[in-house]
Amino acid sequence: MDISEKLKVIIVATDFSEESDKAIDFAAALVLRSLDSTIYIIHAVREPFVPIGDAVGSSEIVMENTETVIKSTRERVERTVSRLKNIGISKVHGSVRVGDPVTVILDAIQEYNAGLVIMGTRKHGFAKGIFFGSVSERVSANSPVSVLVVR
């Protein structure tokens, strides 16, 4: 796959952080140079932990809160999509999915036949990085396509 093919479909993973906003802006700048590209803005909402055998009804509260988070997140993604459309990017779509962010991003690469993933990165400190690693590091290590990490 040559470079122009890789830029046909771009996934931008967002967690709505300042770094993610920079990744979105970077992707927009790339696409504005080649209006034949499509951007997919992806956000993953982690699956809630719901206790088994819950006798006090907390699972219903957790599920309601998750639905609220998903709705709010969809609105934020749609605002981002609208912002990009307003600056002249016509082929941009948003998606909110429930699951592990790394798995969601890797699945989206396959689903959309993406050639490039763009995402921001944040420094979480040594301890958290050692135990969990960052989403951008894990996506980069497991992605079948190029991953551009923006700071």
Task: Give an overview of the whole structure.
This protein is an alpha/beta fold and 151 residues long. The chain has a domain of 57 residues. Helix content is 50%, strand content 20%. It is built from 6 helices and 5 strands; from the N terminus they run αβαβαβαβααβ. It has a 5-stranded parallel beta sheet, sandwiched between helices. The longest helix has 29 residues. The protein is globular, with a radius of gyration of 17 Å. The chain starts with a helix and ends with a strand. About 5% of the residues have low confidence.
Span of the ends, CA to CA: 26 Å
SSE pattern, N- to C-terminal? HEHEHEHEHHE
The total count of helices amounts to: 6
Number of DSSP strand runs: 5
Secondary structural class = alpha/beta
Q: Quick one: overall form?
A: globular
Q: Ranges with pLDDT <50 over ≥5 residues?
A: 126-132
Measured on Cα atoms, how large is the radius of gyration? 17 Å
Question: In this structure, how is the largest beta sheet organized?
Answer: 5 strands, parallel
SS strand fraction: 15-25%
Oligomer: single chain
Helical content stands at 40-55%
Biggest sheet: strands side by side, in what order?
Answer: 3-2-1-4-5
Q: On the 0-100 scale, what is the average pLDDT? A: 86
Brief overview, please?
The protein has helices at residues 3-6, 18-33, 58-86, 101-112, 126-132, 135-142, and strands at 9-13, 38-45, 92-98, 116-120, 146-150. The protein is an alpha/beta fold. Residues 126-132 have low confidence and may be disordered.
